[in-house]
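Input/output pair, single chain:
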Amino acid sequence: MTAELVRGQNHPLPHSRLEIRVTAGVPVLACATLGDDRGTVLGVEWIAHPGSPTLPGIEVSRQAAAGLRFHVDLEAVPDRAQLVHLLLALPEGVGGPSRFGTTAAPFAAVTATDGTEIASFTITGLEAESAVVALELYRRQGAWKVRAVGQGYAGGLAELFGDQGVPQATEFAAGIQEAVARHMASAIQAPLTGTADGARVRSDRSATATQPGQTAGGTGGAGASPVSGVTPGSGTTPVTGATPHQLPGTPGQQPAGPSDGQGQQPAAAAHGTAGGRVNYTHPRRRTTAPPTPPPASPPAQPGQAPRPVAGDATGWSMEERLYNQVWGMFEDLARAAAAYRSAVDFAESRMDQELDRVLSDPRSRIGGTGDAAREVARAKRDRLTDQAREALDRDLGQLAAESEVVEPALPPAYARWDNPVWHAYRVPMDNPMALRLGDLHLPESADLRIPMLVRLPLERGLWIDSGRSGSDAALMLDEGRLRRLAMDNAVGVATRLLAAYPPGEFTVHVIDAAGSAALSLAPLVGAGVLNQPPASGAAGVADVLAKLTRRVDLTQMAIRAGAADSLPPDLDTAEQLLIVNDFPHGFDDRAVTQLRYLADEGPAVGVHLMMVADREDASAYGPVLDPLWRSLLRITPVADDHLADPWVGHAWTFEPLTMPAGSQILRRVLEQVAEARRAWRR
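Output:
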């Protein structure tokens, strides 16, 4: 059960790897400091901020936003540090509010990496303060705890840093604020003016919803996502505790207008007035503040909802706005389907109760009285069901219209293979935010597909299940055909990752011990994007695993010692992906142990695992490998309704991304990636 903390209260932390998600009504910037047992910061090099977002065991958001994440690995925090303070501050010089007293109370949720919420804290009582110590993580007798602090500073970051003993705190804080202000000024367009008609608002998104998979989103998300295992958050999510697919506010917003007590604003507040700001809120979706204005859409006809707009969500870039919008669509579909199912269940239950009351009298069971009672009860049931279906169809139509404008606007990392954006692909210069693994849909909306986005870098490995026992669709396929599809899917995911990262920032290794995947791997091998040929045989397996294990060990030691610059010059510090085909062929007990180690410890230091395997092939190991399978996010090469959503209880059907017949996109993308890598090495 989640502990809802009040100021000064503490709570034990059962996990060492955590994600702290913060939602606020306005953009805020995140910092984290490491201090001794008296709270004194050991120096400016022990402060993580948007300009230098990582410390040993700590990572903060790189930009100001109304939805932030802190990633924490307590085992990697140096022994000298006894306290970790998580800080929030209002950006200065960007036209936003100057004190927390004029904003919604910030909310912080501490979650495990699987999205399970451990504790939450709403920071109330702030007035003139523009910076606040939100939470404190501290050691006690070898264990870690979290304390709700909520101590604000009217003097902003400068006063806060000074209180923690940071030398030249004023200059240091000013440098952070200046860097954040420059980034916001270059990323955010000035609000437009005008009027909008027909806007409708939707009920609030929960600040603690969960994402599929971060999934969503989620959501997701997504924080972790509502579908088990996806983290669209990273964080998202999506996608499991607090959702990563929150729709945060944006800079320079106006205070929300008065409410009618049911979550809706008067017409003047909802639509704006002549010469005022346009409300770009998505039809029937309300956020805590007006989002960053997307491109203007054609005006809606009187009495109709505004037409959907791609990027109609908050964020500091179009990529982030689209990510939030996708997980918002996931939430809307989940809620709409849940409401429909609940209404149908209620109608059936009501009919049963009415029939029980009428037919409890034996005299009513026969003759015209009983038949009339049955007809009346069924008519009521059908009427309620039809009303629920009408509401669902209305929501599905709105989401389908939104999907039609969102899909063409997605960047390559979020787009299907048949999206024209791939024809204009160029190797990026910045690290990606998320990656699309496939699509999600529900039985009530078979034609409506929601992109399944996972945050990058991957927090969990991937398992592409090549077994025939997973679903009815898999049972209909030949075993060899299914294994080929699984490996093709793995190559597609690896290509997307290579295409999403800048040159030199992502490395792919392949273990194909039996050489059975040569045909599927041909695009990667032919383009020359692999640093070495796929490893085969027991010796090749041992060599690759030894290299990656060494990389994990050295990186962990360097981080814990605070000496990341002392890594050997021959060590590849790029993100690493290991693709393993036909496990456990070619693996001995030592290799299996190393693989489990990489699955557990690798993601935290940039080594990720993608298994293409049938679990039945490894059944001889018994329960020894159960932790390995549980640590991986299972996806399938064919459609399968296996993604559980603990948020509203749905089972989402996952559909992998398939390459259009005869398409050369994969080859062309890999050629561009290979050329960029060659130019980068020169």
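The chain has twelve helices and 21 strands. The longest strand covers residues 17-35.
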